[in-house]
Amino acid sequence: MIGLGWAGPAGAEEKSYYSPIIYVDKEKGFIVISSSGAVFGVEVTPEARQHLDKLPPSGLIDIVVETRPDKAPLVKRWKIASGESSCKIFDGKTCK
After folding, report:
1. Which of 6, 11, 43, 58 has a 20 to 30 Å separation from 21 between CA atoms?
2. What is the pLDDT of residues 53-66, one digit of tens each?
3. Which tops the pLDDT comparison, 76 or 6?
4. At 11, is the pLDDT very low, low, confident or very high (cuts 50, 70, 90)?
């Protein structure tokens, strides 16, 4: 008898979410978003952390994260889809 198994990706993978911004924790460096009825936090990089105060409360964000085993997803980049912000596009390093 031959056993078949499935091995998931060994490294991190990118995922994209289109979500309302539920909460921004500037001190801990997290953005709380939702997807498919689940509410969860995504961690921001040091480069993104300095721009958290520019995110609009209840605005819509198109966010790309890197999934990490046993850790919160890590923000790679974002684009603000609705809401006023001086950081509409974050490319991983700078705001536009």
Report:
1. 11
2. 999 989 999 999 99
3. 76
4. low
44-54 per-position pLDDT tens digit: 999 999 999 99
Query: Which residues make Cβ contacts (< 8 Å) with residue 89, sequence separation at least 6?
Result: 77, 78, 79, 80, 95, 96
Identify the three-state secondary structure at position 72: coil
Three-class HEC string of the chain: CCCCCCCCCCCCCEEEEEEECCEEECCCCEEEEEECCEEEEEECCHHHHCCHHHCCCCCEEEEEEECCCCCCCEEEEEEEEECCCCCCEECCCCEC
CATH topology of domain 14-90: OB fold (Dihydrolipoamide Acetyltransferase, E2P) (2.40.50)
Cα pseudo-dihedral 32, 90, 69, 34, rounded to 10: 30
- Is this prediction's pTM over 0.85? no
